[in-house]
């Protein structure tokens, strides 16, 4: 129920229109799922989450890939205080639990079918005004 | 579409405004009791109801059952992604079995049903003459459960046309029952068994059954069914025997180049009238491209082919480009995302699109085309012969450098209405060039897809303003 309430809050924010949702809120909506929502079946996680988070919707093409971070948003905000790299992106100091969703070979028209991969990766973000607004990529911890 | 809601539903006021709704379409909305009551009164007159992922349960099914009972105009009911459970289906089917019910399409994907639901569904299949579509994928029905469904389908009353059984935990044993059903069901047009571990032996048996059956199957989807090249001779036989088959998917099966060669025997047969062919992630390499080229250039019925996630590489692509230049080719949609292509094949591609007038949709994302590759492609795209409407270049290693040329294409080609540039580091400079093109009155862009690209707040404002000034255009990010 708690995750539904959060979802609703997000969706309400999202549908208040482009004016209502900040870029940070959009980042949370598209990329943060904490604690991880449990789906009925593992292979359905991506499809369910992307629909609930308004990433996939009737009339919208399927997003080819999307990453969900299963860590508190505070940790991603904290990443913004890290030294930026050459491209201006900031990395989380520790790896995080992620689900990487990749569109399966089918259509770009809904219903969108995805493959999910669970990884523990560092997350790279772009920040504006001290808040993450863009997920630039993820990478495995160096061995 | 009347009554379309994505996410949060409309207020009560909006409901009152459009009292006679023909369609109710809601997804991802948790229903409060008062909201549910509102919707129930709307549903009484709806022709089609879709409540997807609305946290419905078996108790909601009791209400839905009376709706079905008292609404003879209801033809479509979609309840995917709600934990209705076997108990919920029992309630639902009570309504479905009333004589006044003329439901045609029933979708119950991912509703937490088990084989226990199949008894109830069997009775519906045996009694409901109007039911033409049943989608029960993503439910653990199992072979035993679906065998029971098949019994229902055998009933002469059953006029089912479309059956979807993806991810139903089916095994090889199901094929015997399916074949018996196919023999008795000439009305069946579409069958999907994707994502069930059937294996070659079962798939071969199924194909033999399909060839013998009197039904004129139009669509067959067998994605991720554990098929190898071993099954391809039998699948080929279905293709050469059933002229009705226009849509075949064997994606996500390791058929390999040898399997494809065998498939092509059936595909090239004059009886085969294939229109849509999905061969994504089939372990194909450039070695398959000779056969694929022959298919693309000579099979005039072929309008859509997906080769996504096969390592075709530049050499293979160049062969396909030759085929695209053949005047006999009527291909409209080409999906070559993630095929190991680079800048090197872009000259051939450019040449192909400057000749080919039929191609409307081109998916090329996830290939390292680079700025140089896209610049070459744009030369071909600008040719008056080129009629491409939808172009997908996501994650192609593009930067701001190619945006000026892309902008020219956007502003010049009035046929281009959909463009995807996601996951490319276009940066503010590139996005600004794109915006300039969008402002051009001769730009006909309807959907500009820009997922996961970073831009500054200033550019964000610019994009927003642009969207507001061009209401027929959507920027998706």
From TrEMBL, chain A:
One of its GO terms (cellular component) is extracellular region. InterPro entries: RNaseA, RNaseA-like_dom_sf, RNaseA_AS, RNaseA_domain. It is found in: Secreted. The keyword Nuclease applies. SMART domains: RNAse_Pc (SM00092). GO terms for molecular function: endonuclease activity; hydrolase activity. Residues 20-139 form the Ribonuclease A-domain domain. Its main location: secreted. Keywords: Disulfide bond, Endonuclease, Hydrolase, Nuclease, Secreted, Signal. Residues 1-20 form the signal peptide. Belongs to the pancreatic ribonuclease family. This is Ribonuclease CL2-like.
Automatic annotation (TrEMBL), chain B:
Its main location: cytoplasm. It is found in: Cytoplasm; Nucleus. It comes from the Eukaryota. One of its GO terms (cellular component) is cytoplasm. Forms high-affinity heterodimers with RNASE1, ANG and RNASE2. Ribonuclease inhibitor which inhibits RNASE1, RNASE2 and angiogenin (ANG). May play a role in redox homeostasis. Required to inhibit the cytotoxic tRNA ribonuclease activity of ANG in the cytoplasm in absence of stress. Relocates to the nucleus in response to stress, relieving inhibition of ANG in the cytoplasm, and inhibiting the angiogenic activity of ANG in the nucleus. Keywords: Acetylation, Cytoplasm, Leucine-rich repeat, Metal-binding, Nucleus, Phosphoprotein, Repeat, Zinc, Zinc-finger. It holds the Pfam family LRR_6. The keyword Ribosomal protein does not apply. It comes from Grus japonensis. PANTHER family: NACHT, LRR AND PYD DOMAINS-CONTAINING PROTEIN 12, NACHT, LRR AND PYD DOMAINS-CONTAINING PROTEIN 3. This is Ribonuclease inhibitor. Residues 337-368 form the C2H2-type domain. InterPro entries: Leu-rich_rpt, LRR_dom_sf, LRR_RI_cap, NLRP_innate_immun_reg, Znf_C2H2_type. GO terms for molecular function: zinc ion binding. SUPFAM superfamilies: RNI-like (SSF52047).
């Amino acid at each position: 129920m708690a995750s539904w309430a959060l979802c609703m809050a997000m969706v309400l924010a999202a549908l208040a229109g482009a004016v209502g949702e900040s870029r940070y809120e959009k980042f949370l909506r598209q990329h943060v799922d904490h604690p991880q929502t449990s789906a009925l079946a593992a292979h359905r996680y991506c499809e369910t989450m992307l629909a609930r988070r308004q990433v996939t919707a009737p009339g919208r093409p399927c997003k080819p890939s999307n990453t969900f971070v299963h860590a508190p948003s505070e940790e991603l905000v904290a990443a913004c205080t890290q030294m930026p790299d050459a491209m201006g992106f900031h990395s989380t100091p520790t790896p995080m639990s992620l689900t990487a969703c990749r569109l399966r070979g089918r259509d770009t028209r809904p219903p969108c079918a995805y493959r999910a991969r669970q990884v523990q990766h560092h997350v790279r973000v772009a920040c504006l005004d001290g808040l993450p607004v863009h997920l630039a990529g993820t990478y495995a911890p160096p061995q | 579409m009347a009554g379309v809601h994505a996410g949060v539903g409309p207020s009560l006021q909006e409901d009152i405004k459009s009292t006679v709704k023909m369609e109710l379409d809601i997804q991802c909305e948790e229903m409060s009791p008062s909201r549910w009551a509102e919707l129930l009164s709307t549903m009484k007159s709806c022709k089609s109801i879709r409540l997807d992922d609305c946290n419905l349960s078996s108790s909601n099914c009791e209400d839905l059952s009376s709706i079905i009972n008292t609404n003879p105009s209801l033809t479509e009911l979609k309840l995917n992604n709600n934990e209705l459970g076997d108990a919920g289906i029992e309630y639902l089917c009570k309504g479905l079995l009333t004589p006044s019910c003329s439901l045609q399409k029933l979708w119950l994907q991912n509703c937490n049903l088990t084989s226990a639901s199949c008894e109830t569904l069997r009775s519906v299949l045996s009694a409901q003459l109007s039911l033409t579509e049943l989608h029960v994928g993503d439910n653990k029905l199992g072979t035993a459960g679906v065998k029971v469904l098949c019994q229902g389908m055998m009933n002469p009353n059953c006029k089912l046309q479309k059956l979807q059984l993806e991810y139903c935990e089916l095994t090889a044993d199901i094929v015997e029952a399916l074949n018996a059903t196919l023999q008795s069901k000439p009305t069946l047009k579409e069958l999907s068994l994707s994502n069930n571990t059937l294996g070659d032996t079962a798939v071969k048996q199924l194909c033999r059954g399909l060839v013998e059956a009197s039904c004129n199957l139009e669509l067959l989807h067998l994605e991720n069914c554990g098929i190898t090249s071993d099954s391809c001779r039998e699948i080929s036989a279905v293709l050469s025997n059933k002229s009705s088959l226009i849509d075949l998917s064997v994606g996500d099966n390791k058929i390999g180049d040898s399997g494809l060669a065998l498939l092509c025997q059936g595909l090239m047969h004059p009886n085969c009238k294939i229109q849509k062919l999905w061969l994504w992630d089939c372990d194909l390499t450039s070695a398959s491209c000779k056969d694929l080229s022959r298919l693309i250039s000579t099979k005039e019925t072929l309008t859509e082919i997906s080769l996504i996630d096969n390592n075709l590489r530049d050499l293979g692509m160049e062969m396909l480009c030759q085929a695209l230049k053949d005047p006999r080719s009527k291909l409209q949609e080409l999906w070559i995302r993630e095929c190991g292509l680079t800048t090197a094949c872009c000259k051939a591609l450019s040449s192909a699109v400057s000749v080919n007038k039929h191609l409307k949709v081109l998916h090329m994302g996830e290939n390292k085309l680079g700025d140089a590759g896209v610049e070459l492609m744009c030369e071909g795209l600008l040719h008056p012969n080129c009629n491409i409407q939808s172009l997908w270049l996501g994650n192609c290693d593009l930067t701001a450098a190619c945006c000026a040329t892309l902008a020219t294409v956007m502003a010049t080609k009035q046929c281009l209405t959909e463009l995807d540039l996601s996951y490319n580091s276009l940066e503010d400079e590139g996005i600004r060039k794109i915006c300039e093109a969008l402002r051009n009155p001769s730009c006909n862009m309807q959907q500009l897809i820009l997922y996961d690209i970073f831009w500054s707040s200033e550019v964000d404002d610019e994009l927003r303003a642009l969207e507001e000034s061009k209401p027929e255009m959507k920027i998706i990010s």
